[in-house]
């Protein structure tokens, strides 16, 4: 329908949207369209019932409202409110309140169950969804003719045979299935089961096969008589049951009188042949509830011993005459083993009727509710003391302490005592039902899970000795449990972390996930992220709040990084989970040796060189092998490729707090306390209320991007002396300090000259936060080499040093001052004339615009010609000092030679290129660069 829709449930409402999206009779649909207030009779008066339906549909037949519920929930509602919900004779659910209310308005109402969803069809739609895009290239005419000719000759052909022996591409075959030129029954056949999938010429071939199979069906069971113990037969309206079967005779018991008769087998067959004896089938005795209750009881063992002794014989049983007679009487007429065993179960359980009065249990229930199952978390002993006092006050007999504890423990409510998180962690894990559509997806880049976590390690800075714990953001593919992208930073997790992770995703793979699974963090509900996902057609799925098992794949991935890497590095803070048990000599700050760059390189190597090529226990193969197999069988889908260029980096640059700004023709646009100017804003004086969309550059506080007259412009700060070389987070920290200082000074002297002079000093370079500066300089130096920083070449931060990386430690010694060689050509940044004019416009048609400056050949994200994905940014600093280019890895020196003199790495301590297991053992915090 060309627009995004919201659904409340993945397994209930969302499939309903998919089905209606592909329904030709549905003209329009609106989720959660309105809220109804229905007056109903309730007891002696009236009340109002509110109802918010799931879908309002405009179909060929008129207006239709649908409400989708889980079958179990409908059954529960029908039992709790039978006056409202019920199931009619046709098996359809009905609502006595809503249905007549909407019928008076001429609207049809349907209450639907989630069990009605065609799960196989929905799973097949997920696989074919990529081929329904407008950017999908058509099937070549010669390939379509060749496929139809082959199926016209053979009528059907196995899917894998078409790929392996006839050389068809999987994309062409699946597109033909979607268009209907070849046929696969999408309601019964699973496209993911490629080894069993058959492709037919048309649906009439399938219909003919089914008719042929039906005619060749074996003879009806009613015409076959199977004589075995437990078989029931009907003779002249009387039911008989087979007790014993011999070689020539059979014993039957009359179901009405219990009389046992014996017949020849030949007589039974003769009666059946003449249709006088009709088989009723084999009767399977249902196990009584009492039998299931004793399965785990010691009485079952005693009954089995009695039965075994009875079957040994009277002389060998060791029983008295009277005991033998009682057992013989109990087993009379019991033929099946479980009936005989149940008959011998001792019936000496005693009288379990409660002796205490009902008031005793009422007081106990009240005590548990008010004293025990509360956030105060009183002990059972304390609750029992209150219980005894309440019983004495009411003059009621109370339970013994042992009986009260036995009665109260099963009634402990963890949710009321410790909250929903603890209850979720300790409650039994519910069964997961397979709805036919795997929740983790089946295709590469179909479902990606994204989450953040602080890493349990301390890392070193350059000017600041020890920085804070870095935060890891990772995206994991649900289909193969392999990592797709990650981002580490000293800053707290936010929408910028997600955008940087998406940059890394496209930089490595040249494609974006189709479904993004996020938790309910504030950054995941950002308007910027939602707009980005709508632009690229990404479905966002938010998991339930405080339910980490919904994203178990990414949560387990964090555990893998911690146990396989962080736990082996010096300075890890895993043992600080119990800080009172750690001596000051073992604080991680005193042993920190890793830097952000070295940690990034080690995580990169673990995720993409080791874990990706290691056999996964859930899959039986490695994630890389599964990707290759899936791409061979279901296609690579190159039309979904996304170019990693300046346009994509612009779209992953966040908006400020308000996305649009009004242009001041004299000063420009006001963003986060600073005015930004571009020469094109001069014309804004002739435009009434000129507003522009604004995006900020995280890696350079001196510039912002403004979309003015369908062109993206690079606007520069009018206060360049104060912001030159600064990063956007630095400006945010400084703005907070300025506001705090301003409020404090305003309390003393609001308009005095002294106040103004002090505020001016806040912009002095010596007063900026050095810890924030050091962390951002390290991050910029790291990600500049990967081409993940400034979105445009005109926005490059020339004051940021790409060699600004902390030096590796030489064992535990100090690093000599002459151990580093700086390259002025790199430190000074690109010096071409293209960076001198900051007022050059960037042509772009709207929000999905293209840059008109350098590298302006990039196309919109959804165009089909975006198959080639450059893994190199326009930023010249993405090229390493030795000439290697950042593609899908952290830059490493080529071969085993040492890096050149112009890299900021100690000359005498450059790590050779070697395997990670040897490298981690000898690394001790050395950088990868």
Automatic annotation (TrEMBL):
GO biological process entries: DNA integration
Polar residues composition bias: residue spans: 854-871
PROSITE patterns assigned to the protein according to its UniProt record, in alphabetical order: INTEGRASE
GO MF, any single term: nucleic acid binding
Every Integrase catalytic domain range: 440-631
UniProt-annotated stretches for the region Disordered: 823-918
Organism of provenance: Hydrogenophaga crocea
Name recorded for this polypeptide: Transposase family protein
Signal peptide boundaries: none
Recorded superkingdom: Bacteria
């Amino acid at each position: 329908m060309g627009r995004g829709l919201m659904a409340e449930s993945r397994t209930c409402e969302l499939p309903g949207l998919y089905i209606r999206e592909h329904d030709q009779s549905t003209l329009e649909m609106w989720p959660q369209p309105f809220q109804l207030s229905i007056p109903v009779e309730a007891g002696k008066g009236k009340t109002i019932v509110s109802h918010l339906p799931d879908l309002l549909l405009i179909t060929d037949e008129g207006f239709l409202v649908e409400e989708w519920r889980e079958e179990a929930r409908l059954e529960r509602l029908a039992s709790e409110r039978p006056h409202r919900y019920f199931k009619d004779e046709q098996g359809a659910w009905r609502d006595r309140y809503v249905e007549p209310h909407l019928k008076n308005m001429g609207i049809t109402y349907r209450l639907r169950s989630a069990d009605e969803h065609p799960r196989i069809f929905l799973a097949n739609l997920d696989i074919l969804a990529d081929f329904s895009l407008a950017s999908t290239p058509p099937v070549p005419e010669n390939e379509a003719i060749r496929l139809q000719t082959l199926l016209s000759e053979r009528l059907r052909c196995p899917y894998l045979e078409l790929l392996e022996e006839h050389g068809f591409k999987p994309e062409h075959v699946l597109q033909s299935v979607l268009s209907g030129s070849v046929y696969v029954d999408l309601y019964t056949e699973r496209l993911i089961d490629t080894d069993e999938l058959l492709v037919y010429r048309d649906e009439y071939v399938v219909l003919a096969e089914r008719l042929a199979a039906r005619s060749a069906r074996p003879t009806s069971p009613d015409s076959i008589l199977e004589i075995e113990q437990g078989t029931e037969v009907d003779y002249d309206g009387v039911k008989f049951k087979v007790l014993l079967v011999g070689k020539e005779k059979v014993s039957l018991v009359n179901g009405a009188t219990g009389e046992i008769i014996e017949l020849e087998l030949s007589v039974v067959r003769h009666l059946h042949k003449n249709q006088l004896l009709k088989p009723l089938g084999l009767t399977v005795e249902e196990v009584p509830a009492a039998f299931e209750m004793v399965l785990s009881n010691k009485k079952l063992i005693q009954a089995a011993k009695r039965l075994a002794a009875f079957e040994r014989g009277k002389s060998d049983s060791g029983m008295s005459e009277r005991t033998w007679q009682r057992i013989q009487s109990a087993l009379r007429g019991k033929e099946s083993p479980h009936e005989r065993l149940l008959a011998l179960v001792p019936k000496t359980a005693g009288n379990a009727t409660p002796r205490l009065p009902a008031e005793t249990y009422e007081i106990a229930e009240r005590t548990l509710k008010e004293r025990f199952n509360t956030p105060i978390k009183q002990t059972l002993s304390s609750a029992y003391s209150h219980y005894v006092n309440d019983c004495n006050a009411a003059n009621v007999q109370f339970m013994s302490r042992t009986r009260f504890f036995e009665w109260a423990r099963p009634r402990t409510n963890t949710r009321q005592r410790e909250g929903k998180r603890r209850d979720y962690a300790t409650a039994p894990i519910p069964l997961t039902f397979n709805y036919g559509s795997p929740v983790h997806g089946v295709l590469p880049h179909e479902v990606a899970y994204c989450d953040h976590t602080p890493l349990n390690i301390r890392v070193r800075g350059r000017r600041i000795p020890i920085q804070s714990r870095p935060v890891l953001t990772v995206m994991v593919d649900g289909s193969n449990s392999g990592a797709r992208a990650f981002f580490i930073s000293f800053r707290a997790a936010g929408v910028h972390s997600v955008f940087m992770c998406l940059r890394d995703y496209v930089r490595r793979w040249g494609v974006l996930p189709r479904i993004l699974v996020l938790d309910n963090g504030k950054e995941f509900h950002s308007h910027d992220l939602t707009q980005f996902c709508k632009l690229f057609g990404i479905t966002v799925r938010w998991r339930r709040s405080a339910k980490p098992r919904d994203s178990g794949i990414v949560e387990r991935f964090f555990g893998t990084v911690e146990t396989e890497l962080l736990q082996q590095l010096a300075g890890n803070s895993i043992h600080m989970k119990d800080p009172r048990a750690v001596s000051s000599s073992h604080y991680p700050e005193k042993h920190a040796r890793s830097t952000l760059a070295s940690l990034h390189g080690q995580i990169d190597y673990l995720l993409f060189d080791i874990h990706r090529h290691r056999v996964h226990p859930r899959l039986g193969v490695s994630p890389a092998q599964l990707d290759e197999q899936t791409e061979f069988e279901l296609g690579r889908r190159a039309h979904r490729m996304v170019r990693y260029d300046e346009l994509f980096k612009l779209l992953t640059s966040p908006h400020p707090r308000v996305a649009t700004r009004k242009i001041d023709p004299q000063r420009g646009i006001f963003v986060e306390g600073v005015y930004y100017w571009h020469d094109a804003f001069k014309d804004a004086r002739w435009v009434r209320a000129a507003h522009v969309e604004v995006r900020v550059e995280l890696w350079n506080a001196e510039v912002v991007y403004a979309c003015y007259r369908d062109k993206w412009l690079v606007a520069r700060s009018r206060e360049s002396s104060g912001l030159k070389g600064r990063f956007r987070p630095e400006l945010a920290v400084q703005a907070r300090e300025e506001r705090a200082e301003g409020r404090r000074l305003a309390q003393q002297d609001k308009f005095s000259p002294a106040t103004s002079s002090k505020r001016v000093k806040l912009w002095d370079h010596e007063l900026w936060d050095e810890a924030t500066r050091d962390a951002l300089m390290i991050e910029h130096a790291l990600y500049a080499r990967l081409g993940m920083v400034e979105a445009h070449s005109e926005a490059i931060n020339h004051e940021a040093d790409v060699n600004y990386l902390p030096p590796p430690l030489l064992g535990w010694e100090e690093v000599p001052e002459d151990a580093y060689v700086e390259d002025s050509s790199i430190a000074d940044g690109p010096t071409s004339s293209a960076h001198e004019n900051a007022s050059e416009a960037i042509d772009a048609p709207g929000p999905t615009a293209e840059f008109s400056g350098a590298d302006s050949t990039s196309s919109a994200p959804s165009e089909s010609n975006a198959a080639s994905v450059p893994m190199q940014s326009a930023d010249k600093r993405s090229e390493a000092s030795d000439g290697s280019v950042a593609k899908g890895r952290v830059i490493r020196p080529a071969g085993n030679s040492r890096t050149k003199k112009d890299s900021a790495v100690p000359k005498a301590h450059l790590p050779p290129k070697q395997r990670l297991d040897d490298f981690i053992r000898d690394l001790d915090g050395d950088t990868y660069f």
